[in-house]
């Protein structure tokens, strides 16, 4: 009888469900469809011949066997990463230019630290800018690699993560949500958040006005915290100074956005290939 072998990709899905609580959120994190996530969970239960979960509305509650497996899954995924890191630690040198949207730089802090530990001989240059500008620099061959945000199902690149957008206001103060709704938005062409927000409001027949615009979230924060405007953000960008507006607010739902890796055409350099792999691991596994 052939031994049963656990698939690490399926275990990664199991951990994502445990971390997020729902199949929908796990699918968003992993850039999978909901049906793929559900299928992988059922495949795991069929392989082990034990129930691993129960549904409580939209949320997933794990059985005792499920919780036990989640613990093993985390250890196996960590050991997998440890093995990959050990094998990567051969001499890689050269230069690497990486582009990152300014408001997403915090998500890659651990990636940059990890990369510098693994490949100390690589001279790393990190450039922050708008997703539109970063994509132009990749296409011009000025960047070896870039992480960009974009609307779902956009062409090109490699999707590594999907995230829902939400409307946020100040934690203690908020503006009136009657039309025209005051918005704090990125400058035109600076990011996809503005496009998604405008499309949602137009589709809902809502009127809005631009209260403030900036190239970064840092510039938008004071106006939002002061209760003068509403801003579209991802949940990763929320701070204690912000509060999410739920569906009861009357604000239209926002589409998810994608984070994608873009590289110039042709064979990537070894530093670019290694950085891309680390970004995939960290961003697909976090959320």
From TrEMBL:
TM region positions: none
State the InterPro entries in the record.
LTTR, LysR_HTH_N, LysR_subst-bd, WH-like_DNA-bd_sf, WH_DNA-bd_sf
Q: What is one Pfam family matched by this protein? A: LysR_substrate
Tell whether Protease is among the UniProt keywords. Answer: no
Q: Which residues form the signal peptide?
A: none
Q: Which parts of the sequence belong to the HTH lysR-type domain? A: 6-63
GO terms assigned for molecular function: DNA binding; DNA-binding transcription factor activity
Record keywords: DNA-binding, Transcription, Transcription regulation
Q: Record's SUPFAM superfamilies?
A: Periplasmic binding protein-like II, Winged helix' DNA-binding domain
Database matches in PANTHER family: HTH-TYPE TRANSCRIPTIONAL REGULATOR LRHA-RELATED, TRANSCRIPTIONAL REGULATOR
The record's comment on protein family reads:
Belongs to the LysR transcriptional regulatory family.
The entry's protein name is: LysR family transcriptional regulator
């Amino acid at each position: 009888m052939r031994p049963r072998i656990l698939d690490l990709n399926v275990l990664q899905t199991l951990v994502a469900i445990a971390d997020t609580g729902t199949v929908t959120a796990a699918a968003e994190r992993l850039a999978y469809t909901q049906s793929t996530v559900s299928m992988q969970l059922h495949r795991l239960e069929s392989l082990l011949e034990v129930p691993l979960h129960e549904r409580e509305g939209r949320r997933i509650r794990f059985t005792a066997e499920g919780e036990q497996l989640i613990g093993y899954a985390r250890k196996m995924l960590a050991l997998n990463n440890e093995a990959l890191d050990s094998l990567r630690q051969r001499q890689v040198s050269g230069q690497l230019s990486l582009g990152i949207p300014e408001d997403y730089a915090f998500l890659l802090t651990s990636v940059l630290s990890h990369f510098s530990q693994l490949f100390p001989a690589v001279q790393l240059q990190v450039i922050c800018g708008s997703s539109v500008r970063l994509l132009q620099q990749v296409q011009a061959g000025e960047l070896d690699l870039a992480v960009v945000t974009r609307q779902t199902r956009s062409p090109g690149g490699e999707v590594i993560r999907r995230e829902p957008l939400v409307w946020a206001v100040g934690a203690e103060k908020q503006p009136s949500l009657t039309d025209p709704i005051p918005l704090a938005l990125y400058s035109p062409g600076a990011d996809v958040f503005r496009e998604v927000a405008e499309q949602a409001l137009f589709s809902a027949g809502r009127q809005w006005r631009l209260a403030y615009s900036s190239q970064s979230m840092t510039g938008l924060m004071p106006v939002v915290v002061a209760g003068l405007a509403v801003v579209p953000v991802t949940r990763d960008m929320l701070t204690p100074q912000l509060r999410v507006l739920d569906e009861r607010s009357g604000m239209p739902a926002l589409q998810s956005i994608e984070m994608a890796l873009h590289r110039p055409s042709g064979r990537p350099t070894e530093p670019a290939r290694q950085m891309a792999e680390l970004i995939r691991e960290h961003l697909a596994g976090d959320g």
